[in-house]
Each structure stands twice: as structure tokens, then as C-alpha cells.
Amino acid sequence: MRILIATDAWRPQVNGVVHTLEANARAAESLGAEILFLNPEGFPSFGLPSYPGIRLALPRRREIFRRIGDIRPDAIHIATEGPIGHFARWYCVVNRRPFTTSFHTRFTDYASARFPVPHGWTWAWLRWFHNAGRGTMVSTASLADELRLQGFRTILRWPRGVDSRLFHPDRARDLGLPRPIFLAVGRLAVEKNVEAFLALDLPGSKVVVGDGPARDTLARRFPEATFLGVRRGTELASIYAAADVFVFPSRTDTFGLVLLEALASGVPIAGFPVAATRDVVGTAPVAALDEDLRAACLGALTISRAACRGYAERMTWEESALCFIGNLVRMPEVAVKAAAKPAPCRLEPAAWRGE
Question: Coil, helix or strand for 119?
């Protein structure tokens, strides 16, 4: 089975969308599927002033159509709503090709944080974009409920995973900082709310991994914090495992892959009791969630690291790919060999209300 994923988010961007797509492509191979990408490579692009280092492709419609035709995919999935996503959607509508989409980013919240754009306008555009497909894949039950309330027609589950071999407690190294160490990892931008973490009066040390438009401002305002910039692979894993608490101050994320990476490293979570964070940790005793973020940080210090590790080990990229491919092969127009059809997704059905 050959699957084409159209995405505007791609390397060198470092974010959850890119990581999810690449991890699913690797895991899908064992399920008899080949995932190919229609991404910004080979297209001219333009930068975004508010997002240094991130560029959007400027593709031509004709070239997008040609590339899709050359690949001859069995199924098409559109992961983002940028220029590539829009031209891929156009191709599918014009050629009456079924396709699915996925919802990764709360554009309504992000747009309102920067511009005076009414939420209703943004939701109307998102409904137009996604409802043309056969279903919209989301990572959590609360996001599924929210999209249904906003008029999205068909919601499909697509969980996330973590590489528990890479992110492991045994990778811990001495950071040379006073303990306890409170760690935040992610893009440093206004919607991530990192300032709420850095402004806390906490014992020990605050460490931030990541980069973004707010980094310089945050570094000037909070000189006592340690900013390590972007870290990847085993180096990132060793920083996770060295921390005592992982702090997730975001109120707008749809899913935080960093939460699973921290848990796999044996590090408990502290954050606000928002839907996306609650969806990731469920009722497991691996997080302290409180509107008082300082209280959550201190409370997380008492959580069992072994419980965190055990919880994350159940979240695999193989299961994520299983659900993703299952959503595609259930479309009646997608004809694939029986041997390529995966077993049903093993997610707990009770977590997905309305299906």
C-alpha cells in the first residue's frame, strides 16, 4: 500500500507534526505500507517574521498535481492547512479522490494571540478545509469532542507514540546544576506560555530546551534560567532523564509529544489542568496538574519515576501507525490487498465518545 502525505511542516523544522509524520513512516514499513511525502523540498519558499527559521513553500498548482500523479498513491492524507495542503486538497477535489486530513494545531488560539482575528472566521475556514475529506484525524478525545462541536463531520482517532528505547531513565547525565531540576522543552513562542514557568519561585534550577521567536526576550527577563537551545537525539534524551520534573505550561497545544518523551525518561509532569494534558496522562499517577503551576511543580516531585516510565512504555509509534493506516483502509474507495490491511486499532473505545 502506497500512502502519500502532503505536509507544509518539514525539516529543518523541529516540531511535533514533523516528528509524528516521520515516526509513523518508519513504523508503517512493518505493516506493509510505504509512506511518501509531498513536502516543501524543491519548492521556493518565504519566511515568517514571527517564526524565525520556519519557511512556507510557494508551490505551483501544476507541479503539485504532477507530483501526485507521478506517485500514484493508493491513499492521500493531508497533514497541514498551508499552501501544499491546499493544493493537495484541490487536486483531490478536482479529481474526485478521497482523502483524509489531520488536525494538529489550534490556529484559532494562535491567530488570536497575534492578530485581531475572530475565532468564528478561523473555525469557518478550518471546517471548509477539513470537511471536504473523508475524516479528520486527531490525537485526543477532548479535541475530537471540540471539533464535533465546531461542526467537523467525521473524526478519526490517531494516537501518538514515543521511542522508549531512546528516551530512557538510564540516559541521565549530570547537568552540573542545583537540584531539583525543572525542565521545559519546546518552541519558545508566545502561545507556549513558557513565561508562566520561568516566572515561578522554585527551588533548584530551571532549564529550557528549544528555540523560537521569544527566546531572546525570555533569556533577558529570566537570567537565572538555563537556556540550552535546540537539542536532539541522545543528547536531548540525556537532558530529559537528568530532570526531576517536566513542566508543561502550554494551554493551547492539541498534544504534547514532549510529555511522552519526559514520561518515558521517568520524569513526572507538572502543568495546568487543560484538556490536552489531561488526555495524555489520563488517570495515571504520573502528573500533578493544578491552576497553581508552582504547586503542581512541587507536587510532581513526589511522583514515582517508575510509574512514569511504565505508563509511557505502552505508547508506541507502531500503535500510532496501526491506527493511521486503519483509518485509510476503511475508506471504501481505497482498494488494497488483504495482506496489507492492519488489525484494528487497540485504543480504548470508551475514550472516544461519539464514535
Answer: helix
